[in-house]
Specification:
six-stranded antiparallel beta sheet; mainly beta; 46% strand; globular; 556 residues; eight-stranded antiparallel beta sheet
Amino acid sequence: MKRVLCWMLMLLLIQQVSAQETKTYTNPILTGFYPDPSICRAGDDYYIVNSSFAYYPGLPIFHSRDLVSWKQIGHALDRPEQLPLIGAGVSRGLFAPSISYYKGIFYIVCTLIDKGGNFVITATNPAGPWSNPVYIKEVNGIDPSLFFDETTDKSYIIYNSDPPNRKTLWNGHRTIRMYEFDYRAKKVVGEEMLMVNGGVDTSKHPVWIEAPHIYKINDWYYLMCAEGGTGYNHSEVIFRSKSVTGPFQPWDQNPILTQRHLDRSRKNPITTAGHADLVETPQGEWYAVFLGCRPYEGDHYNIGRETYLTPVTWTADGWPVITKGEEEVQYRYPLPKGVKGQPDNAFSGNFTFKDDFKENALNVRYTFLRTVTENWYSTTSQPGWLEISLRPHTVSGRDNPSFIGFRQHHHEASASVKMKFSATTEKEKAGLVIFQNETHFYYLCKSVESGKPVVQLYKSDKDSMQLLVSKPVTNNKEAVYLRIEPNKAVYTFSWSQDGKRWETLKELDGRFLSTATAGGFVGAVFGLYGTSMGQQTTNKASFDWFEYTGKDAVFR
């Protein structure tokens, strides 16, 4: 009898532990290169939009009904006339969008750097289509957001801008400014207003006050901003006022979110936390989305800035807090109220994505370098294959190369393809690239040398490429298999002629692809890529499938 009772108690304990495990969600909710998140709620539906820089289509849109299970439903800028990106460096283009919902209409405001500046687009369905941009020339700065004041039916556009009279008193001295915004006519009204000069405490010379959002909660108007720059010293700060036009007073316990003061040697650190946005659930709970990073060594991370979700608590005197004291951003939190079961999120934790190209349209997760203005790829010419035309453009340039990208979401991962391609000249190459920017990438490809087929491995070298390895291909008529396997600071490059027996070509330094080394604001992207290196050709490469698997230990 005692043995039966013991077994029953053990079974009950196992069931309780299992139940507890199913009541959490996993951070980041969007792994990999999904920075600068902005969120809004429309009824019971939530939507997130992220920066996309010089990738096309622009501004990925995600949908959720529970805040933790996310599906990509499209892009806000998916037509060439909406988004001129040719000539833009990979970390230029679209900076920091903000999404809002008011009276049945969705609004996104954003900045197209080096081109038109700040603009607004609208849609009745966030999956699209979205309107063409309306540029707001008076708004001089970045990180715009809209605030709709339901009590007055007025709206405002608030943004990061220059110091007063453009006189910089310290490096990183910026301001937060605001216009009243006629949301019907999509134009500013009246005079520009200065909301914050410098930051929370100007005696400390705070840097890069940016990413502002205004919320009206109870009788207070809250102004929330990022401060410290979008690197290791990133943080989030809060101000409030009884009037939407201020004056706004900072909380004396700022910042309300940061990880910069924590032990850098802690296990599985999440760093760079900031650029937040708040949302309230129908059950009255508050959550914050924000960007963060997961370095694998020092400040090295290759996958870019990711989207995190954490609960927000409120102090007795009405200030929101995301993290406090020594609190670390967690990889797992309890599910929001009313959410049952394990979240189904194809962008979080470890997952496998495999595409056999049987659909006529490309999966919405793929991305291109700059605006696609001509038809150079097809999924219908050879059913079940993705066909890419080789063109003179390269990923080292600033045009639209024959590159179809899939983000690296994990530090430990595997990406592989099955490809058919026969080069006719040494300039013609096709294969799999891991790309951080125009000067930092590795390229695993098939080509020819002295008229004979080879598999090659290149490393980018300023405006060209350095050949590292070359191996002969014995059967040129058959497909080849190419594989790149990141393992934190080591990337392993392999190939196979039958998909079973793999040969390792080389292990290379992954830190070459990190933001700390390469610079910029984006993350590494795998690319199905073909080029004729400046020459004209009619040759094409065909891909039977692409497969990606994430293997991060922290999610196991």
